[in-house]
Amino acid sequence: MRKIFLTLGLAAALFSCEDATEIIQPSEFGFDTAFQNADDVKTAVFGIYGNANRTTGIAFTSYFTDECGLGEAGNNGNESHRLQLNVNNAQASGIWTGYNSAIRNANIFFEGAALVTPADAAEQATYDEALGEAHALRAYAYSQLLAYFAQDLSDPSSLAVPVYDFVPGVEDRLPRNTVAEVVQFINDDLDAADNLLTQAGTAYTVDFISLDFVNALRARVAAYVGDYPRASNFAQAVLGNFTLPTTANAAQFTEVWQDINGTATSQEVIFKFNNTLAVGSSMGQIWNTNSSDVTGSPLYEVGRRLFNELESNNSNFGDIRRQVWVDPSSLISPDYPNATNPREDDILVVDKYPGDPSLPGLVGGYTNDQKVFRTAEMHFILAEAAVEAGDLPGAAAQLKIVRDARYTSPQAAPTYSSATEAWADIMAERYIELAFEGHRYIDVKRLGALANQGYDRNDTDCSLYPAPECDISFNDFRARALPVPAVEVRGNPTITQNDGY
């Protein structure tokens, strides 16, 4: 069924040859050839995983926010790091076109899969599982577009992104849907995924779509739009299957980021995209030229503000994230604000993606899986829900669970005198725990006003790049939403641009 749908800016390029000529070549590989049985349908869904596995949002968030500083090999930094966010920003365009590509390919998949009739119960289970995965991956792609491009996540009538469940052609020119309409589409997809995966008897695996993925995405999207009763219900459902450690163990936590599938990973990571030498992205190259150590020519480093918080936490509480996020080969200036050459004397190497020890060669040294949903995020969602409900001790209890898993010296639960103070502490803990995972931009967008916080880069870090700005308030238009890319605006006269661009 067509609901309210879009044109893609690049649809003309993708479909113009077929539309112009309508010539079927003898060698064309059509739906009837590609989709002949349930196994073909299952194979086809792997392509949607590849399309949805994108790290552009992680890169943009790290560069644009206060997560990272300019590295010794980073020259003047890219446009995002210089806070030059406009309709031609390459990363904003990459997020828009990349996730729309995943959506388009999911829609192509559904058209092809509709031609297949499973022959028996076993084929039906394979078929249902593949369709469930595709629905969930399409919902995930829409959740990313919603988070980055919606004008106001708290306003159901605010403009979000166009929604479409068909393969777009050059004639399709449709406007943006509202936040409420996009959320409804996501939830419908997730309901379909839930039903299909349940029918198929799909078991949990960390690298493939499962019911835990579905519930984690339900919880995240509900939190995005402030529907905290729903967010809390689904976060609790996920936490029925995943538990953070009650004591901090640096060696085990390091295994999570080295993609070693042990007990720690099985409890800390709900879902991850499996990146290999042949598939996916080399995560470490977002920050490092060659490897995640001081000899690897870092392009970007751990921002000094983030490092200072990690260092303080480590000194006071034994925070294991200090040694996991920052490579031990890093050069640390003892007086960074007054360093003669801070760019050379202070090199804080991002080591959250240290390379997979099971993968050989240089590329293996900066290739890691993309952790999409982690157990800690579910506790943060419960903390947000508690603040929204006026339960400040409940919010503090959730943050203590995360801190107990990271501090070798356990601390009492924090106490809050106001909701603003609680929101600020949630943001502070998310800033540390979820650094370099693509959350910070979205967190400031949706929680910044509640916590009265924006981006707060270190002043010395700001002196390393030629830009007139250092910090951005939460109410700056650039912190509220990304621009609709120029290529989309040129190709679609009905599209509405976000405010300020």
Written account of the structure:
Helices cover 50% and strands 3% of the residues. The chain starts with 10 loop residues before the first helix and ends in a 10-residue tail after the last helix. The longest helix is centred in the first third of the chain and has 29 residues, at 121-149. The protein has three domains: 1-202 and 471-501, Alpha Horseshoe (Serine Threonine Protein Phosphatase 5, Tetratricopeptide repeat); 208-274 and 369-437, Serine Threonine Protein Phosphatase 5, Tetratricopeptide repeat (Alpha Horseshoe), CATH 1.25.40; 282-366, no CATH class. It has helices spanning 11-21, 31-34, 38-52, 56-64, 90-113, 121-149, 179-200, 211-224, 228-239, 250-257, 263-268, 304-317, 321-325, 342-345, 361-364, 375-388, 392-406, 419-433, 440-451, 459-462, 477-480, 486-491, and strands spanning 68-70, 269-273, 300-302, 370-374. It is globular and about 70 Å long. α3 packs antiparallel against α5, α6 packs antiparallel against α7 (179-200) and α8 packs parallel to α16. By secondary structure, the chain is mostly helical. It is built from 22 helices and four strands. The strands form two sheets. A two-stranded antiparallel sheet has the order 1-3. A two-stranded antiparallel sheet has the order 2-4.
